[in-house]
Amino acid sequence: xxxxxxxxxxxxxxxxxxxxxxxxxxxxxxxxxxxxxxxxxxxxxxxxxxxxxxxxxxxxxxxxxxxxxxxxxxxxxxxxxxxxxxxxxxxxxxxxxxxxxxxxxxxxxxxxxxxxxxxxxxxxxxxxxxxxxxxxxxxxxxxxxxxxxxxxxxxxxxxxxxxxxxxxxxxxxxxxxxxxxxxxxxxxxxxxxxxxxxxxxxxxxxxxxxxxxxxxxxxxxxxxxxxxxxxxxxxxxxxxxxxxxxxxxxxxxxxxxxxxxxxxxxxxxxxxxxxxxxxxxxxxxxxxxxxxxxxxxxxxxxxxxxxxxxxxxxxxxxxxxxxxxxxxxxxxxxxxxxxxxxxxxxxxxxxxxxxxxxxxxxxxxxxxxxxxxxxxxxxxxxxx
Amino acid sequence: xxxxxxxxxxxxxxxxxxxxxxxxxxxxxxxxxxxxxxxxxxxxxxxxxxxxxxxxxxxxxxxxxxxxxxxxxxxxxxxxxxxxxxxxxxxxxxxxxxxxxxxxxxxxxxxxxxxxxxxxxxxxxxxxxxxxxxxxxxxxxxxxxxxxxxxxxxxxxxxxxxxxxxxxxxxxxxxxxxxxxxxxxxxxxxxxxxxxxxxxxxxxxxxxxxxxxxxxxxxxxxxxxxxxxxxxxxxxxxxxxxxxxxxxx
Lengths: 384, 249
Description:
The complex is a heterodimer of chains A (384) and B (249).
Chain A: E1 2-9, H1 15-27, E2 32-40, E3 54-60, H2 72-79, H3 98-110, E4 115-118, H4 121-130, E5 136-141, H5 150-159, E6 165-168, H6 171-180, E7 187-190, E8 209-213, H7 222-235, E9 240-244, H8 250-259, E10 266-270, H9 275-279, E11 284-287, H10 296-303, E12 308-311, H11 317-320, E13 327-330, H12 335-347, H13 349-364, H14 368-383
Parallel strand pairs in A: 1-2, 1-4, 2-3, 4-5, 5-6, 6-7, 8-9, 8-11, 9-10, 11-12, 12-13
Helix pairs in contact in A: 1-14, 2-3, 4-5, 7-12, 10-13
Chain B: E1 14-15, E2 17-20, E3 26-29, E4 38-42, E5 48-50, E6 60-66, E7 69-70, E8 72-73, H1 80-86, E9 93-99, E10 105-111, E11 115-124, E12 127-135, E13 140-152, E14 157-159, E15 161-166, E16 168-174, H2 176-179, E17 186-195, E18 198-203, H3 212-215, E19 221-223, E20 226-232, E21 238-244
């Protein structure tokens, strides 16, 4: 079977790219697999991709890139014009141009493959509109159902029924898409992201460190984490909070930490290339997000033997964490409850160690080979 | 956040624990029986050192190998409490086990001087209060007064007061005299403890956090027109910046 993944830009870094690469790599032991990147701005991908996966791009953005005859003039002209096929509310709209519309439509019209997996709303819609009928089209949704703005949502409603299947990250999203796709013949599957890379460093639960990681943006709720942690530090001043990542609210958070007088307890660690190594030094992973589309960091923490305290925010955490077993879920937006959750983890070391051991077991369910099996099941169901 | 994938081949035996003990031996625990064969290789010079006795190793990073291949470990290599305990022994060289981002076990050797490891900074009520523990130096018997001074770079010095008890040090220095008469836009002050007649630097190094200057931010106090803020320097030493507040700040 030949499986093609279509992705916006395979040469950057980000959750979707990583998930796609890991899955493509795993599937390449079983099938002929290619990743098609709409754009290419670097010579090589930043993230690792298995050697058996073919990678190619459609629009070359590198300096000095040449367009094949007879398209050169056309490319020059259309590259200056905005995209007409991608909805302006698609989050990556500004990346697309009339030229990428042109290239993409041509590619989809001639792509000979058995399964085409597209990885974001704009590309899902393009596949629904222009992929050859013989190709099984699967639109993957890394965003949650309600994250789409009304305009693009109308297009989703109009075009997703032409896809063979939609794959969501959470069961909550599966329910929403099922409702939308009722009586259309489009299947909906939930398949989470898989954890690749084999064995991992493991926490010995010996450092009084709480770790949080992710971009420093409002949705991650680090302001609330700092407030909750301030209560923790009052009673457990020997515990420390390490926040990894960078982002636009970085200054604000540093100021808040100063205001809360957390200077002896909080460290803004910046970005890391080895989050697993850092997790292994910690004892608790804190997820303070207002929204978490899936929650890959929860699984990464589990895989390093670190239990999680998380807000019960939509949508991922509650589908991954079993409260009291491998982590704790606290009511969303309740800073006091979050502080209590952290203190429970801190003060009940035996319970924490038990949860850490369970977390390792939970992580195994997300092993990339298990996730690839579920994709294969979906493929077979769609083929028959 | 992206992770750095380990590049080691699968199927390789991985160390469960890899720590440097107080007596500078490397303790490696394996899932099965240990068949020895540990050799350390200096990353720069290529010099080889057989065995797990680490005393006398040259400064630098050593890759730990077993039967010719680098040891892969699942242990971050240290605990914060372990680093504090290790620093209780007077030493001139510090040896740490460190797991690289590729999962390889390395041993890092550094020269050290006795200093005070800062555990707590309290910039409030017109003073800068510091608590810490003596690292790599001799502890004091009983409790006794200790010196605590702030020394302006190319400038005067302000005397505070401190106490040392065993490994513990605490001290305060008033910010008023530091700010008084400041004419330059910005003056930097280094802090020192004096325990048993020995001048000790104040710093925060018994952890794995690099570049604390950008990672830790202390609250500022005001003394007249001067904003007084402790900070960590490029070498993770504790210092104080006094800045005259004006239209340009």
